[in-house]
Specification:
The chain is mainly α and about 190 residues long. The protein has one domain. The chain is built from 9 helices and no strands. The model has no long low-confidence stretch (mean pLDDT about 95).
Length: about 190
C-alpha cells in the first residue's frame, strides 16, 4: 500500500490537535502584564505539549520517509499512536489549570508514556513489514533515546505524587532530548 494517505491523515490529525490546544488557552480579562500571571501555568503546559506534538510530527515524517510500504497492521498501529496523541490536549488543559497537582501531572505522564509506546509499536510494525535489514531498522539501531525516554517517563509518573514540579522537569527533559530531529534516519537515508 502507498503511505501517502496515512501520512496526510496523520499530519491533519496533529494539526487539529495543536489547534484544539491553542483554543484551550484563554486570554486574560485584564490588559496589563500582571493579568498574564494566572495563565502562565497553562501557557507553559501548552508550550511543552506543542513541542511534544511537533516532535512526534517531525519524527513520524522521518520514519515514513524511510518506509517504502505499509500494510493494515501499520495502519492500525498508526491509529493507535494518533489515539494517544489525541489525548494530549485534554491532559495539557487539565495540568495547566491544576499546576503542580499530582493527579493531572501524573496523567500527563501516563499519556506521554503511552504515546511513546504507541510510536515504538508503529516503528516495530514498519520494521516487521520491511525486514530487519530495512533502512528504518538500520537507522533505529538500539534506540537508546527511546529507551531513555521511557525510563524518564516511568520515573516521572510516580514522582508526580511527591514532587510534581520535578516530574514536569523530567517531561521537559525528554522533550529537550528529542527537540533536535532524529538524525539517525536522515543519516541512513543520506548514506
Amino acid at each position: 500500500m502507498n503511505k501517502n494517505r496515512m501520512e496526510a491523515f496523520s499530519d491533519g490529525v496533529v494539526a487539529i490537535l495543536i489547534t484544539i490546544m491553542i483554543l484551550e488557552l484563554h486570554p486574560p480579562a485584564g490588559s496589563d502584564w500582571a493579568a498574564l500571571r494566572p495563565i502562565v501555568p497553562s501557557a507553559l503546559a501548552y508550550v511543552l505539549s506543542f513541542i511534544y506534538l511537533g516532535i512526534y510530527w517531525n519524527n513520524h515524517h522521518h520514519m515514513l520517509h524511510a518506509t517504502d510500504r505499509i500494510n493494515g497492521s501499520i495502519l492500525w498501529a498508526n491509529l493507535h499512536l494518533l489515539f494517544w496523541l489525541s489525548l494530549v490536549p485534554f491532559a495539557t488543559a487539565w495540568m495547566g489549570r491544576n499546576y503542580l497537582d499530582a493527579v493531572p501531572t501524573a496523567l500527563y505522564g501516563c499519556i506521554l508514556i503511552m504515546c511513546a509506546l504507541a510510536y515504538v509499536i508503529l516503528q516495530d510494525r514498519i520494521i516487521k513489514e520491511e525486514g530487519a535489514n530495512s533502512r528504518l531498522a538500520a537507522a533505529i539501531g538500539k534506540d537508546r533515546k527511546g529507551i531513555a525516554s521511557l525510563v524518564l517517563y516511568a520515573a516521572a509518573i510516580p514522582l508526580a505524587f511527591f514532587r510534581p514540579w520535578l516530574a514536569d522537569l523530567l517531561y521537559a527533559a525528554v522533550a529537550f532530548l528529542w527537540f533536535v530531529p532524529d538524525r539517525r534516519i536522515e543519516n541512513q537515508l543520506r548514506d
